[in-house]
Each structure stands twice: as C-alpha cells, then as structure tokens.
Amino acid sequence: MTVLRNSAWTGRAPRTLEGAFGPHTSKNIVPMADPVHPRDRIVMVASAVAAFVLGALMLLEVVV
User: Fold this and answer.
1) What pTM did the predictor assign?
2) Among 8, 45, 48, 50, which is least packed, fewest CB within 10 Å?
3) Cα(31)–Cα(18) distance, rounded to whole angstroms?
4) CB-based contacts of 64: which residues, under 8 Å, 6+ apart?
C-alpha cells in the first residue's frame, strides 16, 4: 500500500449540523444580529451629521 505523506486528508469526513451536534441544534441556523456598542453608535451618528452639514455647506457654496 502506498502512503501519501503530503496529503490534505485529516481523517475527518464532512458531517451535517445535526450529525455533528445531535439534539442540541435545530435544522435551521438563525443568525444573531451583532449588537452595536453605544460608543460606535455615537461615532456613526456624528459622522453622518458632519457629512450632512458639509454637504449642505457645499451646496450653499460656503465651503468650496
């Protein structure tokens, strides 16, 4: 028998989610929404307000 020394085979075969975890899972995967940290939300809102103000000033030709 020939032995492959550089094979990518790890001895593990792909399994289904139910086969891997049994009764601890359902057949459907429901992704959870990542919570946004309050500090990140403040930065996003401040950036949006700054972009809006800058855009308004450019339209009024105050800032060129």
Assistant:
1) 0.47
2) 8
3) 17
4) 58
pLDDT of residue 18: 74
User: Which is nearest to 42 in space by CA: 53, 33, 50?
Assistant: 50
CB-CB contact of 63 with 55 (8 Å): no
What distances in angstroms separate CA 48 from CA 35, 43, 52, 55, one per listed residue? 19, 9, 6, 10
pLDDT of residue 5 exceeding 70, the answer is no
As a whole-number percent, the residues of the chain with pLDDT over 90 amount to: 38
What is the distance between the alpha carbons of residues 30 and 1, in angstroms, rounded to a whole number? 46
Radius of gyration of the chain (CA): 27
